[in-house]
């Protein structure tokens, strides 16, 4: 009973925030955007892989290794079938699915749920 | 719970050697017969002390660590860090710590050493520190915060390492050495003098022949050091690094047999006078010697592990040859480097005071064997000399050729010439025979050989030699070495180039669909982008190409460490009008850019934010500038001297020629960056012999040099053709560059490409000058295509609003990135 209530409350506070339009994205690459979260504004890197099972990913734009906000400017690809982005500064790979750094298991980027609503790109916060 | 049939093994000390012993025991399955407990006095798990000074250059404790607590847990080894052993009770077979008593059946002392602090009056003042542990480094860093100057007492190997650490803290650093020269153990007086000059050129003062008498309050600084001749030196911080002494107090207190000057006496099995106790590393005294290097320590660990598991390996002394890079200066010492331990030894010496290199060979009295060698300034000679030394190979007829500059054609020892007994890796004592055994047992690449033998996982000094042995042996076994560029394409760069060219494939997606798999990655995408650009020269900002580019190419600027970019417009031949210079200044002022003159005779504007790049470039293009491709693996600059238009020595118009070359090849993309230079006479002020393509004027035309390099591994360009007229010069450069672009590996400079080119310079001349492959015309045509399709990439992007959308810092807001914070230094802005 308690659990159900808690779940319900959580669902209620989640909302979809419109970030930009499909035309703002760059196919097979990334762009950066601002996101308003309950913890304040966050910089998000959006990656667009048209034609793939999952077309959109949203991860932190902040690179924990260089401490610069640059992740959206990295090269997107896959390693052993997992979509990744390579940091443009020191080239570490981050899994787009969950933000996990493949070179250092203690480092993980935040990720957000992101999807198209029509032509709009929306993130769940 | 201790199972009753297992013996209890305690290891005191978790330094490099102590940890190596654990690894050796695990390898021998010793955990099936021992319950192993390791005690470490420090709170850190074993770390790499050899590279300690990198702690101030950005490496943290974690990256220096040699292992993880998981490793210990997985192997059922109890690790008790931050728990110093205070006594050994041999009567009850127990050790004592502040937390309790622990019984042992077998005990290993791996307590290492401590830094020796000479008995100097005032040596115990605050800010007088030592250099040995991570905690020491933290203390040095803390003291360095309020210091401007630092002095290291001790000019040996560790002293210079410590000086490097102080330099890393931006302190004005000096080294004070008691002996008449630096590194007295490794080098002689000539080598020491050269070393001093080199180190002083790096900004570290070197004072030799100085005995510190006392340390007292300074006037301008915190301390004043007073020397034997009453000379003084003031400094804020003092680090003692004047040698090591064994940490042998536990052994002394329990009455094990000790050396006269300390150290626990061990035999070949690493056993002390008590057969239940072993000792390894710097605490151990073997044959009256303490071995203060990690290699011998590892060998002792191996012997000790064998002793504990009934193996047969013994410690039989170790070679103290070393190859070091101290403060960026190469120093090497092999065997009897001073020649004072070999009766009748004779020497060859080579001293170059201009390039500051010194090399010495010590040979046996009959001149047939190498017994020692000394190197200052260039360690590239080390590996070959070490092979002659450690394998007792017979010297060539002219031994001096081994230390003469390599352009004189020093015979290098190929992997084939090495006997199976040749030691490849001295840290882990791996022979060529052992490498071959792992290949015979099924290893198919370098990684597998390293994992199996541990070769090249210690100091790493043998990496190049190991690779050449593995490659050679694999080839000899008919194994095809996997040269695939990455997991997405089972082809080399050269094969991908041919596929693109032959099939006329113009996009990455088409290439991937026909010949690859997956999405691609940060290896294959830029490599293919470069190939496509070399072949078809379409704008890299086109939608099909933009996701392939590294960030620098994507935004046509060079990303700096804080995520801002630097901008370098082309200044052909380094010639620029005052009006254009003013525009550069105005743009830099308007966008608050840090400006610096580059080595390629251009101006670099730093600190531009992504969204400002289009406006900056619009202003530059309006003033007549073009993009400089400083961001690309592409033609960079053509450096020149003023030539005969001004210079009284010049014999040709070097600026005019450099501009012709720069305009001809600008925009050309290649496996790596391309640098050019043109000098107007043989005085060579443009340094053309350090470039990929160098041109030097003669009375009759131009001499062409190729495949030079500055940077990390300098290489002199080689004279390729002489007295060429303009037309022939361009023809040869066209062919040369296109042949390189076709056949090089990704990110391979022309220098390395040339060194790996079978047939060498003669072959290259045959292909380019004599057209032995019949491809000269094709190469020229291909170059002509690139020349004809040149277009300034920035002008192209500025004319297309879709492309400019890419330059928004954020797609949904015009706020700049608030995390880019600048501070002022020397009148300009730099990242805070």
UniProtKB/TrEMBL annotation, chain A:
<dbReference type="Pfam" id="PF13806">
    <property type="entry name" value="Rieske_2"/>
</dbReference>
<keyword id="KW-0534">Nitrate assimilation</keyword>
<dbReference type="GO" id="GO:0042128">
    <property type="term" value="P:nitrate assimilation"/>
</dbReference>
<protein>
    <submittedName>
        <fullName>Assimilatory nitrite reductase (NAD(P)H) small subunit</fullName>
    </submittedName>
</protein>
<feature type="domain" description="Rieske-like [2Fe-2S]">
    <location>
        <begin position="15"/>
        <end position="123"/>
    </location>
</feature>
<dbReference type="InterPro" id="IPR012748">
    <property type="entry name" value="Rieske-like_NirD"/>
</dbReference>
<dbReference type="InterPro" id="IPR036922">
    <property type="entry name" value="Rieske_2Fe-2S_sf"/>
</dbReference>
<keyword id="KW-0560">Oxidoreductase</keyword>
<dbReference type="InterPro" id="IPR017881">
    <property type="entry name" value="NirD"/>
</dbReference>
<dbReference type="GO" id="GO:0008942">
    <property type="term" value="F:nitrite reductase [NAD(P)H] activity"/>
</dbReference>
<dbReference type="GO" id="GO:0051537">
    <property type="term" value="F:2 iron, 2 sulfur cluster binding"/>
</dbReference>
TrEMBL record, chain B:
<comment type="similarity">
    <text>Belongs to the nitrite and sulfite reductase 4Fe-4S domain family.</text>
</comment>
<dbReference type="InterPro" id="IPR036136">
    <property type="entry name" value="Nit/Sulf_reduc_fer-like_dom_sf"/>
</dbReference>
<dbReference type="InterPro" id="IPR005117">
    <property type="entry name" value="NiRdtase/SiRdtase_haem-b_fer"/>
</dbReference>
<feature type="binding site">
    <location>
        <position position="641"/>
    </location>
    <ligand>
        <name>[4Fe-4S] cluster</name>
    </ligand>
</feature>
<dbReference type="GO" id="GO:0046872">
    <property type="term" value="F:metal ion binding"/>
</dbReference>
<keyword id="KW-0534">Nitrate assimilation</keyword>
<dbReference type="Pfam" id="PF07992">
    <property type="entry name" value="Pyr_redox_2"/>
</dbReference>
<keyword id="KW-0285">Flavoprotein</keyword>
<dbReference type="InterPro" id="IPR041854">
    <property type="entry name" value="BFD-like_2Fe2S-bd_dom_sf"/>
</dbReference>
<dbReference type="InterPro" id="IPR016156">
    <property type="entry name" value="FAD/NAD-linked_Rdtase_dimer_sf"/>
</dbReference>
<dbReference type="InterPro" id="IPR017121">
    <property type="entry name" value="Nitrite_Rdtase_lsu"/>
</dbReference>
<keyword id="KW-0004">4Fe-4S</keyword>
<dbReference type="GO" id="GO:0050661">
    <property type="term" value="F:NADP binding"/>
</dbReference>
<dbReference type="InterPro" id="IPR041575">
    <property type="entry name" value="Rubredoxin_C"/>
</dbReference>
<comment type="subunit">
    <text>Homodimer which associates with NirD.</text>
</comment>
<dbReference type="Pfam" id="PF18267">
    <property type="entry name" value="Rubredoxin_C"/>
</dbReference>
<dbReference type="InterPro" id="IPR045854">
    <property type="entry name" value="NO2/SO3_Rdtase_4Fe4S_sf"/>
</dbReference>
<feature type="binding site">
    <location>
        <position position="647"/>
    </location>
    <ligand>
        <name>[4Fe-4S] cluster</name>
    </ligand>
</feature>
<dbReference type="GO" id="GO:0051537">
    <property type="term" value="F:2 iron, 2 sulfur cluster binding"/>
</dbReference>
<dbReference type="GO" id="GO:0020037">
    <property type="term" value="F:heme binding"/>
</dbReference>
<dbReference type="InterPro" id="IPR036188">
    <property type="entry name" value="FAD/NAD-bd_sf"/>
</dbReference>
<dbReference type="GO" id="GO:0015980">
    <property type="term" value="P:energy derivation by oxidation of organic compounds"/>
</dbReference>
